Amino acid sequence: MLSALTQLLVFQLAGEVLARGLNLPVPGPVLGMLFLFVTLLLRGGPDESLQSTSSGLLQHLSLLFVPAGTGIMIHLHRVADEWLPLLVSLVVSTLATLVVTAGVMRLCQRRLPAGEEAS
Questions:
Q1: Spatial separation of the C-alpha atoms in residues 93 and 101, rounded to whole Å
Q2: What is the pLDDT of residue 71?
Q3: CB contact at 8 A, 30 and 15
Q4: Measuring CA to CA, which residue among 1, 103, 106 is closest to residue 48?
């Protein structure tokens, strides 16, 4: 478990260093996740340790939202001051997600042979 956590943190660190070093407009953890994805593609998937550690982290994902919720409560006055732009961005991003998801679903359905359903 320790080696898998170290591996995840090393990829996040590499992304963070690259993003800050090259002044990229992409968050470091996103780049680290991209590096991890490419590595897993080249290796043919995760090993058992990384798979079990990742599953454990995903099972407790809700705990990672506690600091964000606390931050919102601390800065509630800012949310109250800027409620309209926040509401508009939430609605627009939700609609955009629905449209893109529907488009991808339609593309996937076209690729399936006639009469065959996804399981």
A1: 12
A2: 84
A3: yes
A4: 1
